[in-house]
Design goal:
Blueprint (H helix, E strand, L loop, with lengths): L15 H12 L4 E2 H10 L6 H13 L3 E4 L8 E4 L6 E5 L5 E4 L24 E4 L19
Parallel strand pairs: 4-6
Antiparallel strand pairs: 1-3, 2-3, 4-5
Bound molecules: zinc ion (2 copies).
Length: about 150
């Protein structure tokens, strides 16, 4: 993949809206949903249709510019820029906070596949649970799960 920052990825026709979506992905530290991107464009004074933004994101994924991160039990797909160093996330089941993981277990894991010729392009890994503020078993939790 070409480094997209400042330039424009090859093989994609440049439009104003595609430029805005790419800018937002480049600036964001966390993966974003199509609706997040839509409201960010609108806050910047632009107009964006959710279906258009979604189509742009899918195009970016197809061209390898962005990657789709699936978040468990979420109806919404999240997208982020396809950076060389990818990230995994832990998702809080209560407040939906997304906590980045600083390592990748696949770095020290050799998958044993029945098809020895399988060419791996990537992987998904997701951790789910409760963040420190929501964990019913933690002293910091707002609610307590000890009702009789
Ligand atoms: Zn939480
Ligand atoms: Zn990984």
């Amino acid at each position: 993949m070409e480094e997209a920052r400042g330039g424009w990825p090859e093989g994609i026709k440049r439009t104003k809206q595609r430029r805005s979506v790419l800018d937002i992905l480049e600036r964001s530290e966390n993966p974003l949903g199509a609706a997040d991107i839509c409201s960010m464009i609108e806050r910047g004074g632009g107009t964006a249709w959710l279906s258009t933004v979604y189509r742009i994101l899918e195009l970016f994924v197809k061209k390898g510019v962005a990657v789709k991160t699936s978040v468990m039990n979420s109806e919404m797909a999240l997208y982020e820029l396809n950076r060389f160093k990818h990230k995994h996330y832990a998702v809080c089941m209560s407040c939906r906070r997304i906590i980045p993981m600083d390592n990748c277990p696949m770095e020290s894991f050799i998958p044993v596949l029945e098809d020895a010729n399988f060419r791996m392009l990537g992987h998904n890994l997701e951790i789910f649970g409760y963040c420190g503020d929501c964990d019913p078993l933690s002293g910091r939790a707002i609610f307590r799960g000890d009702a009789k």
